[in-house]
Amino acid sequence: MPTQEEKWLEFSNHKFKLPVPYVIYADLECILEKISSCEQDPKISSTESIAKHVPCGLAYVIVGPDGAMIKPPTVFRGKNAIDKFLKSS
Predict the structure, then answer these.
(1) Positive/negative CA dihedral, 37, 42, 46, 50
(2) Does residue 28 surpass a pLDDT of 90?
(3) Do 35 and 51 meet the contact criterion of CB atoms below 8 Å apart?
(4) What HEC string does the chain produce?
(5) How many angstroms separate the CA atoms of 43 and 29, rounded?
(6) pLDDT score recorded for residue 72
(7) How confident is the model at residue 89, as a pLDDT?
(8) In terms of C-beta density within 10 A (0-12 exposed, 13-18 middle, 19 or more buried), how is residue 19 classed?
(9) CA dihedral 71, 65, 89, 78 (to 10 degrees)
(10) CA 45 to CA 71: how far, in whole Å?
(11) 32 with 52: CB under 8 angstroms?
(12) What is the pLDDT of residues 39-55, one digit of tens each?
């Protein structure tokens, strides 16, 4: 087992880093849907789910080496936003 001082692994050879020519920035929006659940037993430790994140929109943009957008932001909205995003090229 590592000692207390050696328990974290950290990158330190910054001279070997390579610049990334393109960056993708993305944002995902969700609606919180309430979940109905049964009563929890107070004698037992548990987590109670009260809501579910349902994706309703997604947008992304690709930025090139010069800092400019490669193309306008791409937006997907609606129930199948994630499926549309995954099937897009």
Answers:
(1) positive
(2) yes
(3) yes
(4) CCCCCCCCCCCCCHHHCCCCCCEEEEEEEEEEEECCCCCCCCCCCCCCCCEEEEEEEEEEEEECCCCCECCCCEEEECCCHHHHHHHCC
(5) 37
(6) 96
(7) 63
(8) exposed
(9) -60
(10) 50
(11) yes
(12) 777 787 778 788 999 99
Q: Is the pLDDT at 8 greater than 80, yes or no?
A: yes
Q: How many residues does the chain have?
A: 89
Residue type at 61?
V
Contact (CB, 8 A) for 45 and 78: no
Say if residue 34's pLDDT is above 70: yes
- Tokens, residue 76: 């997907």
Distances (CA, A) of 5 to 8, 9, 13, 34: 8, 10, 19, 44
pTM of the predicted structure, to 2 decimals: 0.64
